[in-house]
């Protein structure tokens, strides 16, 4: 229940003191009293004119307005979405405007005086905002210094989602009117219409990784995201993760029916854990056996990704930009995008779900970084990259893949058979999403998309260090990074990688290894396992790894970003 704006000195349950526009500052009561009285009189005149179209006929009589109460005529929402629900006068940007509310939009037109000849100006500029772009309506009040509740009613404020390129931001439209009756009618109609957007979440489970990147995830959520969720009247249940696997444990046990979505604030590793937890929970609820090759079921809830990591590839790929406010606005507005997901299995057992994986240079670089976690994050990544390049070695392995053969306009060809290649590879990437990031604006796998039901297999064969570095640099300057003779790309639905080297130890920390012949010496993990980089997390696999793509297995809050504007981002790490 809300309290009527007629009771200006009492608390308002439908505006909330912390949710009011910040620009409301106390003003001197002695300044401009005559102008204020005149302005108040004009706006009350506007309240009397608030009525649905068409206006009452000339022969009809209307009841006089009582003290402190105005009669407002309005129509119920009609079947025609363009039919007027309510109409009235508000001051917008210091201009009196004729404002009309329909089921789809709010439209306003400045009220211009008639010309000396008695004709109205037909050049009046009409403006509007679509209700699908509005996510909140609040009461605007003026309060004294230290006043926490009540205050003088000034009108209503619409909070909208505005887009500039890939970036989304909050935008406000102030509808000023001093009449409590007038504002109450409009407030109720706007609230009712906004509640009809079923895709917009009302309750969210939020995971925040305080150790992500520069330990800034909590501050990102508290300062940039939480205020927007509160403004949109979204209830949140926040868990600050304390260790690796904490979010996974919570998702296995919590009651998901209480929420409309899950949000992760952190880097790619944190997001990967929550994705795995949501999908694993879905398989548990469906009775799937994780120790067998099975067809997984979709996750029950959509996932929102708030970027607070170092690369934020997943957030970048689904938002087109690394921007926490943009990510929050996608969640608030209920923008949803189905996304393909991979399953990673070894020896017939599911290891995890994810979006992308790298073996060879990518896996070895991450393994080196993990062994030097005592370093600051940026220093650790640079050290691992330089050391891996200095000790560049190929992997001796057998790669089998199932091509995606799709006839134009037709389904997958069931006659597809496995193809196999073997040899020395500097790096092998398997990606179900484009993997956009600042160092690769077009993506590490620009030939795939979020929901096309396929994976990109990129096999980088053995080459000299200088040629390999040229290949890496082309990711950042938007040139064709796949035009080298030692790089092969495939569109696939499954990949099986089997290392052919025997278990043994090559100490990457040894200075002597820098002098090894890169064309002959493969890299092997110390414990007889092989390091994989899966969504920025180290996954050590004892042998063969099977990767399968599952079309649109999870839904993320965001959009399908096919093309990005050219941006002058250059890689500074190579």
From TrEMBL:
Q: What PROSITE patterns does the database record attribute to this sequence? A: DAGK
Q: Which residues form the DAGKc domain?
A: 199-348
- One Gene Ontology term, aspect cellular component: membrane
Region (Disordered), start-end ranges? 1-79
Q: Which Pfam families match?
A: CERK_C, DAGK_cat, PH_CERK
Annotated Low complexity bias: 58-68
> For this chain's UniProt record, which GO biological process terms are given?
sphingolipid metabolic process
Q: Where is the composition biased (Basic residues)?
A: 32-41
InterPro entries, alphabetized? ATP-NAD_kinase_N, CERK_C, CERK_PH, Diacylglycerol_kinase_cat_dom, Lipid_Phosphate_FormReg, NAD/diacylglycerol_kinase_sf
Coiled coil region boundaries: none
From the UniProt record, which GO molecular function terms apply? lipid kinase activity
Q: Which SMART domains match?
A: DAGKc
Q: Any idea what this protein is called?
A: Ceramide kinase-like
Query: From which source organism is this entry?
Result: Scleropages formosus (Asian bonytongue)
